Amino acid sequence: MKGKWLFYMQGRLNMKDNLINDIIAGVIVALVSIPISMGYAQVAGLPAVYGLYGSIFPILLYGFIASSPQVIIGVDATPAALVGGALASFGVIAGSVEAMEIVPVITLATALWLFVFFFIKAGRVVNFISKPVMGGFISGIGFTIILMQLPKLFGGNAGTGELVTLIINLCEQIESFNTLSAVLGIGTVVIILIFKKISPKFPMSVVMLVIGACLGIFGDLEKYGVALLPTVDAGLPSIHIPKFSLLLEHGEDIVMLSLSIALVIVAQTLLTASNYAMKFNYKINNNREVFAYAVANVAGGMVGCCPINGSVSRTGIGNQYGGKTQVMSVTAAITMVLVILFGTSLLSYLPVPVLTGIVITALIGIIEVDVAKKTWQQDKREFVIFAVACLGVLLLGTVYGVIIGVMLSFVAVIFRAVVPPKSYLGVIPGHEDFYTLRRNKSAKPIMNTVIYRFSGNLFFANWDAFQKDIEAAIDNETKHVIVDARGIGNIDMTAAERLVILHDNLRARGINFYMAEHVESVNDQLRAYGADSLIEKGAVRRTISLALRAAGVEKPYPLVGHGEDEPYEYVEANERLAEFEWAFGDSAEERMERLATQMADELIHTKDHSMKKIMEAEQHVPWGRMGLFDEDELLERLEFHLTELEAQGADDVEELEQRIEQRRQIIESKISNLSPEALELLKRHRYEIEEHLREQHPEYYQRMQEIRKKMGK
């Protein structure tokens, strides 16, 4: 509750601090919305004034409900084009009474779909769309609307549809080319872009709007063939209930059309909102956004308007002039009310080319050039994803562009999973840890050893790449292969089975195989998939250094290209880590007991009781050579079992006890060299083991204490 209150207060402070900028941006957005809204209303088959009606109540309600502080909604290109195309297929004449009756029904049906999306939380789909996909999608929409509007710069009519259709329309509209219109339109674009470079905060769009109005009033532009905005009657829109009886006539078509429009609205508007949220480092509530779209479309339908969508161009203009909160939307709605009540007589003097130039400059600003540059420079695969998402919208439209975008995002995830970062490791003399050979010139590989880092989950789709990399690194001198699996957090059944096969094949060739550094849950998966033989045989080790120790590669490690006359120090503190519990989980104690029993049997039946023999016995158990902590615990348990055997009449137990104690002192000395904390941990660990043995087997524990007392320990 406290966090929400702080977030609310922070929002109020931001609103207060940015109030002037938000009001200015809102006024500019409203003025620029006039030609955009009127034009798209006509595209949707409605009289131009309905575009202004759709810029009052829907924007106002969205401003109060939305979580996005910057997105502006209104009558926009894609929904308008979809509705206009549908009317033509229904045989309804644009601008007719029938069109004015059926369009609001489509809008309310769209709102119902949006409410459905709200209840099923469909906004979550945006979480699966990457930055390159999002940037490509927004850029594709920007390019599409620019191509739609481009003919109006030189006196032609706006087009609708996808890239090919828009290019054909552009070529056809050249016949309507008007020189003065082109000068006004292109000149507006050039002047605004120049001022963006010189003074980004200066509202040159408003200045050009005023200049255009003055030219319309005093320049008699129509005389020279320059199009002006159509005359609009003054007055607020009336509220009316749409004729739902029309659903009986066009029911199935309206249901499918409204579903498509709802998908476009969610995808385009949410992507725009997410893009700005990412750019300016704030959070939005996707589900709340969808609810706001639904409410806005209910309001649009009640005033007879076509479906309402997030406007990329108007949002870009708001951002250009410093708008940071939904005060912009409220201001834009109030400004539009004033325009409809008192300024409609002036609208007819506004030159269409000038207003189109203002819109196009706003659209140029939303094209994600920076994302394209970064992806091109850093990762060509990401650039391809950006380009395909952009072209998908341009060539196939918004709906298919969304589908392509989502698919590309999943393809990117799969590609990264199948081809994760990989490298071979070595040692930098005098430095701790292991380093990639490719990125560290001082790093040298350990002789006869391949250390391969695989930084991704291991599963059926990337197993071949994993195995091929290992096989490619093996030569006739290779004796040990160690996989640095710290990036492997998950394996599947296929990988588990093939790891066993790889291990067995390499062992058959005289090559030790180990997997190290992975999280303990991977060991649980190995056991679950029947690959526990890897654990039993000690092929999984907690650290790379412990794997090397198990393979008999001692420090300082022999390095390729590093002579024996160049000694270096190397300390690996991880040797003090206990591995058994990490590897075996709940069954660790049982496995340690089994190893201790096996060692005791082997040692008691041999006459060689030297320390070397004790170490050999440890290495010959299935697990192999252990880390210092585990070895100390094993020797503790071994000592207990020898006491048990002595009670049963075994010989030479005291001599073995002596050797074990000598080995434990060496271990203690090594651990103390690592750190005093490690030594203290070892002593505490010993105490816990002895207490456990005393509680479980008091008679043998007492006998062990008597032998130690007798030996003066």
Task: Explain the layout of strands and helices.
Layout lengths: L1 H16 L1 H25 L5 H5 L3 H9 L7 E3 L1 H14 L6 H23 L11 H19 L13 H11 L5 H20 L5 H15 L27 H35 L5 H17 L5 E3 L1 H9 L6 H16 L1 H4 L4 H15 L2 H10 L1 H17 L1 H21 L3 E5 L8 E2 L12 E6 L8 H11 L6 E5 L8 H16 L3 E5 L3 H9 L4 H4 L3 E2 L2 H7 L29 H5 L3 H17 L6 H10 L7 H20 L5 H22 L1 H21 L1 H13 L3
Parallel strand pairs: 5-6, 6-7, 7-8
Antiparallel strand pairs: 1-2, 3-4, 3-5
Report on this structure.
It is a single chain. The strands form two sheets. A six-stranded mixed β-sheet has the order 4-3-5-6-7-8. A two-stranded antiparallel sheet has the order 1-2. Helix 20 (463-473) links the parallel strand 5 (449-454) and strand 6 (480-484). The longest helix has 35 residues, at 246-280. It contains 31 helices and eight strands. It has helices spanning 2-17, 19-43, 49-53, 57-65, 77-90, 97-119, 131-149, 163-173, 179-198, 204-218, 246-280, 286-302, 312-320, 327-342, 344-347, 352-366, 369-378, 380-396, 398-418, 463-473, 493-508, 520-528, 533-536, 544-550, 580-584, 588-604, 611-620, 628-647, 653-674, 676-696, 698-710; strands at residues 73-75, 308-310, 422-426, 435-436, 449-454, 480-484, 512-516, 540-541. The protein is elongated. With 713 residues, the protein is mainly alpha-helical. 64% of the residues lie in helices and 4% in strands.
